[in-house]
Amino acid sequence: MRVFVTGASGWIGSHTVDELLTTGHEVLGLARTDAAAAALRDKGAGVLRGDLDDLDALRRGATDADAVVHLANKHDWANPAESNRAERSAVQTLAEALTGSGRPLVFASGLAALALGRPSTENDPSPFSGPEAPRGGAENLAFEYAERGVRAIAARFAPTVHGTGDHGFVAILTAAARRNGVAGYIGDGSSTWSAVHVRDAARLVRLGLEQAPAGTRLHAVAEEAVPTRDIAEAIGRRLNLPAKPVEPDELGFLGRFFGTDMAASSEITRTAFDWHPTGPALLEDIAAGAYDHAV
């Protein structure tokens, strides 16, 4: 398939491009910068210049492709309303371009907002709808297009998609530990996060693209529930720092998430798509120095 990928030079996106190319697909990647365009060309992927606000570029990329993988997000934690607006607009634009075609639209979604007091499953619908909701209510919006001939598939990623070079949440926690002289956790550290290695996540995106029916929720989860205290202690051991409880504001915007249970199951995903994670575990990655770059 010729696959249009947004976020093609990002953390999950760059690994997804590698996975798609290795398995025989053709890739057209959205590139905002010269560096991103060069990196895509070096891999053998095509390039479409543009960004999430360039709706004409998104429309062209989707119209000319056999499938779309939407992984880009502004991740503007200082202005979440802008991130939500851009995400909703991008998903709507891509879905409109695919309407009536039966072609797949795999889009990034999250597990962080599904805190239910138990591990979330693929059967749990997103509770968020409308432009003011987290991610602009994009998951439910996309699924509305399943009835309009779009094979919409939600890829729900664990809160930490880890690996060497990751600049996500665990990198932020590591940088905060360096800055504060302590690897912090919230409360007694009993809250739990799910986790997945980035290569396993990329493989699941490809499997979903190839196999998943419309309305599927994929759970990119290898470890269901890693205690946040264990994450902090692993960071502390790597940095030779103590691990202690801290106030949420000492971790910046991440403080309100790190004390929240974000556990999830992937049993349905594993069975339906024969997906078996093989990458290292989160604590193994931390111990091996995957986050030594975080400052």
TrEMBL record:
It comes from the Bacteria. Residues 118-137 are annotated as: Disordered. InterPro entries: Epimerase_deHydtase (IPR001509), NAD(P)-bd_dom_sf (IPR036291), NAD(P)-dependent_oxidoreduct (IPR051783). Coiled coil: none annotated. One of its GO terms (cellular component) is cytoplasm. GO terms for molecular function: aldehyde dehydrogenase (NAD+) activity. Residues 3-212 form the NAD-dependent epimerase/dehydratase domain. PANTHER family: NAD(P)-BINDING DOMAIN-CONTAINING PROTEIN-RELATED, PROTEIN YEEZ. This is Nucleoside-diphosphate-sugar epimerase. It comes from Actinoplanes italicus.
